[in-house]
Design goal:
CATH class of the largest domain: Mainly Beta
Helix content: 40-55%
Radius of gyration: 20 Å
Number of domains: 2
Largest sheet: 5 strands, antiparallel
CATH architecture of the largest domain: Sandwich
Structural class: alpha+beta
Number of strands: 8
Shape: elongated
Number of helices: 8
CATH topology of the largest domain: Jelly Rolls
CATH superfamily of the largest domain: B-lactam Antibiotic, Isopenicillin N Synthase, Chain
Strand order of the largest sheet: 1-6-3-8-2
Length: 270
């Protein structure tokens, strides 16, 4: 079965190499070799030890938000995004005229989430949070690609989220504070997050966050997008490979699909 999968992967990569040249697919081919166990992946010792790392991407727990136009635009649009997210979360009548949230409505909304960190892009939450997603997708579409995840992290006052890793190094997380303030740690480095500020992190490093504000709940928006050193050709190739695995189904194909990154998606027009 492994040989059959490798043959099908090779056919897709050959198609891409014909269109874009062998050099454009070199890192993808190396990544496939890592997935197949023919090569080992070497990354920062602080990164997720079990993840299969895409080769030669700059790896830091934190990236300077000043270098990303998306981070600047998210900060500039903070008021609009905050209002849209809160309106979707608590309803129009859950907001006061000055834009503040009625505490009991927010408390009820958080309780209804039952500890979930909702991803606005999955069917379960798409309709409810669609108005809040539009502006963010526009920001990222203009600069790179649409986000692969848009999540709302709720941080109750005085609690700390369990530390965790994400499953790939293909993406960066843009973290916009919506309400409150606190700290976030990634790869043993701590940053302050606060309402209106956007931090950029690589979540293949162990990370955690907590709230230190006066509010009962701190809210952080997490927008996951492709690592800026990923090329358009590489992204489309990974999306094609994953789509093929998804269409085939079965245990072996599903295992390969997960190794290619859960968020690889075919982009419109390709």
């Amino acid at each position: 079965m492994e040989n059959q999968i490798l043959a099908e992967v090779g056919n897709i990569l050959a198609e891409f190499k014909t269109r874009h040249g062998a050099a454009a697919l070199a890192r993808v081919e190396e990544f496939v070799a890592v997935i197949a166990g023919m090569k080992t992946s070497q990354g920062d010792l602080l990164q997720q030890p079990n993840v299969l790392l895409f080769p030669r991407l700059t790896s830091h727990p934190w990236h300077d938000g000043a270098h990303f136009s998306q981070a600047k635009k998210l900060e500039a649009a903070h008021g609009t995004i905050r209002a849209a997210v809160l309106r979707c979360l608590v309803g129009e009548d859950g907001l006061a005229q000055d834009g503040s949230v009625h505490p009991e409505r927010l408390r009820s909304a958080v309780e209804a989430l039952d500890g979930e960190t909702p991803n606005f892009l999955v069917p379960k939450h798409q309709a409810r949070f669609a108005p809040a997603v539009r502006a963010m997708c526009d920001i990222f579409r203009m600069d790179c690609y649409e986000p692969t995840q848009v999540k709302l992290l709720v941080l109750p006052r005085g609690t700390r989220k369990p530390s965790r890793y994400c499953d790939d190094n293909l993406h960066l997380s843009f973290r916009l504070g919506l309400t409150g303030r606190g700290k976030m740690e990634a790869g043993h480095e701590t940053r302050t997050w606060e309402s209106g500020r956007c931090l950029v992190s690589d979540d293949s490093y162990r990370h955690t966050a907590w709230s230190e504000g006066d509010e009962e709940f701190g809210l952080m928006l997490i927008v996951r997008s492709w690592h800026p050193e990923m090329t358009e050709t590489e992204i489309h190739a990974l999306a094609r490979l994953r789509a093929m695995m998804n269409a085939k189904g079965g245990t072996h194909y599903t295992e390969w699909q997960s190794r290619l990154g859960d968020e690889a998606r075919e982009q419109k027009g390709h």
